[in-house]
Amino acid sequence: MAPTTSEHIHCLIIGSGPAGYTAAIYAARAGLNPVMYQGLQPGGQLTITNDVENFPGYPDGVMGPEMMEDLKKQAERFGTDIRYGIATAVDFEAHPRRITIDEKLELTADTVIIATGASAKWLGLPSEQRLNGSGVSACAVCDGFFYRGKDVAIVGAGDTAAEEATYLANLCSKVYMIVRKGEMKASKIMQKRVLDNPKIEVLWNTITDEILGEHAVEAVRVKNVVEGTTRDLAVEGFFVAIGHEPNSKIFQPYLHHDEQGYLKTIPGTSKTNVDGVFACGDVQDYTYRQAVTAAGTGCMAALDAERYLAALGD
């Protein structure tokens, strides 16, 4: 059964999190009557983050889910219509733009703000998911501070893993870097920084077999795939740095993107190559991926949408 059009929306926000909620706050205050569909994970990645200590305005830190609820309430206070639902298809060649929600509800919109974020890639271990937020993290910059003076492990072999291992070495007593092959994919300069750092021990040809601990990470069991031997590393933090995947698949036929799928925006703006369609947050940010930078681009997207509509004479 084909989707049926239910309503026309002035400013549609697809996705939530710091970018989406900030866009909603600005769009609502500008009188754009924004409607937000929160997506598969309302509130984004921060809903699975415990302590957030680096977001301005929270001197004592805040729980990730609590901060997202604060942003949501602020967006609602100014009149944002926040709904549950997932964008499952779009047609950005149509005028106005067409968006299908949950494969059955078709909307039209004058402007669209994409804030669908990116999802961390995981190893797929049950213990990894069980201890996520209790010693397991996909963001060293976000959570490394909690492991100051402690031993940690990080898995990955690319530039991000090398950069995060170096970052952790500035805070932690010892960093084990788990590399699946006998070489890294990271650039030569990043490899040199890792190999020259006395706090980092690279475990070559090694995979993660299990993360140990009942309520928090206590150790990680690794296996050398060449020798066939296993050992337990006593660590309190386990960081996964094998990449992120932007949630951009349905937009890629229409919007310019890089080889990883991150949406491209005109530098200094949130504008995509399609008029009236804007992107903010981690879906277009492969460099910083922080809540505060996502919020900043959410603000930009709302302002860009407001100016776009004003130029149309709205």
Number of strands: 19
Distance between the termini: 35 Å
CATH class of the largest domain: Alpha Beta
Shape: elongated
Q: What do the pLDDT scores average to?
A: 93
CATH superfamily of the largest domain: FAD/NAD(P)-binding domain
> How large a portion of the residues is in β-strands, by DSSP E?
25-35%
- What would you report as the Rg, rounded to the nearest angstrom? 21 Å
In helices, the fraction of residues equals 10-25%
Domain FAD/NAD(P)-binding: 10-298
GO molecular function: thioredoxin-disulfide reductase (NADPH) activity
Protein name: Thioredoxin reductase
Subunit structure: Homodimer.
Name some characteristics of this structure.
314 residues; alpha/beta; FAD/NAD(P)-binding domain; 2 domains; 7 helices; 24% helix; 28% strand; elongated; oxidoreductase; thioredoxin-disulfide reductase (NADPH) activity
